[in-house]
């Protein structure tokens, strides 16, 4: 419910005069004369009375709210997760899942991926799948033509229990 009672003051009205008094019908009063239409002046803005509730799905998220300034820890890491998130209240299966997310990292570049046997196998299986489905035909590049680039995107797929399903 929104309160719609507004105090509207006309720009030509005077609070000292009594507009409810009896008027002499023979002489027009300033109130009876046409007034140029101008927008009314609001002296009281309406405020919603509705109570705001946080959506239930937002309770699944952890917001890092720290009042300390950004300082590196002894390990050299700014904002270590242990300063913001506490895992002891989680069940053992959820704790294993959470820890597995931070244990293995996804490479950002091809050079990083080539250092791990898991990622080399994943790239080979991806290339074999592309060849098997006939996605590309390998041909000689015509002269004066520049080939388009491509980028590898590396993702670790997890099972519902937190274990690694595959490297993709």
Please outline the helices and strands.
Layout: E1 8-9, E2 41-42, H1 92-103, H2 110-113, H3 117-132, E3 156-158, E4 164-167
Antiparallel strand pairs: 1-2, 3-4
Region (Disordered): 1-50
Organism: Trifolium medium
Protein name: Retrovirus-related pol polyprotein from transposon TNT 1-94
Explain this structure to me?
The chain is α+β, with helices and mostly antiparallel strands. It has a domain at 104-135 and 150-168. Helices cover 19% and strands 7% of the residues. It contains 3 helices and 4 strands; from the N terminus they run E-E-H-H-H-E-E. It has helices at residues 92-103, 110-113, 117-132; strands spanning 8-9, 41-42, 156-158, 164-167. The strands form 2 sheets. It has a two-stranded antiparallel sheet with strand order 1-2. A hairpin with a 5-residue loop joins strand 3 and strand 4 (164-167). Mean pLDDT is 72; it is low at 17-24 and 64-70. This is Retrovirus-related pol polyprotein from transposon TNT 1-94. Residues 1-50 are annotated as: Disordered.
């Amino acid at each position: 419910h929104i309160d719609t009672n507004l105090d509207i003051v006309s720009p030509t009205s005077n609070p000292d005069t009594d507009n409810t008094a009896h008027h002499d019908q023979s002489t027009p009063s300033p109130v009876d004369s046409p007034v140029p239409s101008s927008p009314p002046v609001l002296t009281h803005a309406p405020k919603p009375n509705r109570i705001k509730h946080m959506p239930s799905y937002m309770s699944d998220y952890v917001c890092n709210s720290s009042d300390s300034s950004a300082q590196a820890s002894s390990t050299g890491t700014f904002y270590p997760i242990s300063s913001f998130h506490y895992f002891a209240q989680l069940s053992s299966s959820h704790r294993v899942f959470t820890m597995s997310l931070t244990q293995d990292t996804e490479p950002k570049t091809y050079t990083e991926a080539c250092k791990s046997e898991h990622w080399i196998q994943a790239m080979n299986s991806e290339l074999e799948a592309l060849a098997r489905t006939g996605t590309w035909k390998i041909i000689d590049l015509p002269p004066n033509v520049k080939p388009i680039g491509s980028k590898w995107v590396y993702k670790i797929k997890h099972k519902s229990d937190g274990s690694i399903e595959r490297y993709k």
